Amino acid sequence: MTREDQADQVRERPAGGPPPPTLWRELRTFAIKIAAIAGIGMLLLTFVYGLHYNREAGMSPSLKDGDLVVYYRLDKDYRAGDLLLLVFQGEKQLRRVIACAGDTVDITSEGLVINGALQQEREIYRRTERYAEGIEFPLTLNEGEVFVLGDARDNVTDSRVYGPVKTGDTLGTVIAALRRRNL
After folding, report:
1. HEC states along 60-98?
2. Beta bridge partners of 87
3. What letter does residue 130 receive in the DSSP assignment?
4. 67 and 83 Cβ atoms separated by less than 8 Å
5. Could you give the CA distance from residue 39 to residue 50 in angstroms, rounded to a whole number?
6. Tens of pLDDT, residue by residue, the chain (183 residues)
7. What distance in Å separates the CA atoms of residue 183 and residue 173, rounded to the nearest whole number?
8. Tag placement on the chain: N or C end, fewer CB within 10 Å?
9. pTM of the model
10. Cα end-to-end distance, the chain, whole Å
11. 57/157 Cα distance (integer angstroms)
12. 85: which strand partners?
C-alpha cells in the first residue's frame, strides 16, 4: 500500500470517529465477556444453586454412590416426597422428606404410619423399621420441622436417629441428579 492510499484511508474516516477494531481489542472484549459469564455462574453456584457429589448409598436406588446432584438453596418449603440436602455431624446427607409440620409420624410393626395411615411408598423396597436406639414414636412435628428417611431404609442415619430436622438447618431442595457411574 502506497502512502497515497494510506492518506486516502485516513481522509475517509470521519474526524473523531472510533478507530477500526484491532485483533487485540477484539480479544480483550471477548475475554471480558467470558470473565463476566464465569463470574455470574460462580455467583449462582455460590448463593442460588449448589452441587453435591453423593458418597453414600443411603438413597439407593433413587440416588447412587457417585451421582452428582444440583440443589436449589432458596427453596426450603418442603413437601412430602422432596429430596433435600442436610448436614449431620459434619457430613452432607441426601434424604427424602416423609412428613412435614403438623404431621404425626409412627413406625409400627406394620411399617411407616403418617397421621394414622399406613404408607405405601413407591420405589422403597425394604420395610421401614424402628432402630433399637433413637427417638421415641409417635412423634408430632412442630412448625419448621420435617421428618426425613433414606430410601435404602437399612442402616441409614436419618430422622429415626437424630429426630426431626429444622428446615432452616437444611441446605436446599434437590432439583436434578446426574448419574456418574453404574448407569
Report:
1. CCCCCCCCEEEEECCCCCCCCCCEEEEEECCEEEEEEEE
2. 92
3. -
4. no
5. 15
6. 566 555 455 555 555 667 777 888 899 999 999 999 999 999 988 899 999 999 988 898 889 888 999 999 998 999 999 999 999 999 999 999 999 999 999 999 999 999 999 998 888 888 899 988 889 999 999 999 999 999 998 889 999 999 999 999 999 999 999 987 655
7. 23
8. C
9. 0.79
10. 63
11. 11
12. 94, 172
Grid coordinates 473523531 are at which residue? 16
Pairs from 70-75 (Cβ < 8 Å, separation ≥ 24) = 70/174, 70/175, 70/176, 70/177, 70/178, 71/171, 71/172, 71/173, 71/174, 71/175, 72/48, 72/172, 72/173, 72/175, 73/47, 73/48, 73/49, 73/171, 73/172, 74/48, 74/172, 75/172, 75/173
Look-up: residue for cell 416426597?
Answer: 81
